[in-house]
Design brief:
Blueprint: E1 2-9, E2 14-21, H1 27-42, E3 54-62, E4 65-72, H2 81-90, E5 92-94
Antiparallel strand pairs: 1-2, 1-3, 2-5, 3-4
Length: 95
């Protein structure tokens, strides 16, 4: 799955963008990531925004289907945390 990531919020209020493709990951990382993404799409977390925390807007491309989901920082599944961080580090920052 190709995932476009938009991270916004935090103390500085910056917006950061990046992406990752689970097809390029080793299977021990790709399988849990794919499962976590499917769970997010099936039952997206709904929580009140928290000041100075990040919100992630994910656009998930799975074959011909594209879906958007928004998840608060505290609700990001453990299997996705390092992937989101790496995508944001490689991506672009805007104010």
């Amino acid at each position: 799955m190709l995932v476009e990531v938009c991270q916004r919020g935090g103390f500085a209020g910056l917006t950061r963008r990046g992406s990752f493709d689970t097809a390029t990951l080793p299977s021990e990382q790709a399988t849990p990531a794919d499962e976590a993404l499917r769970r997010l799409l099936e039952t997206p977390a709904v929580a009140a925004p928290q000041p100075d925390r990040f919100v992630y807007e994910l656009t998930i491309h799975d074959g011909a289907a594209t879906r958007d989901v928004e998840v608060n920082e505290r609700d990001v599944p453990a299997a996705l945390q390092p992937l989101l961080a790496a995508a944001i580090q490689r991506g672009e920052i805007s104010g």
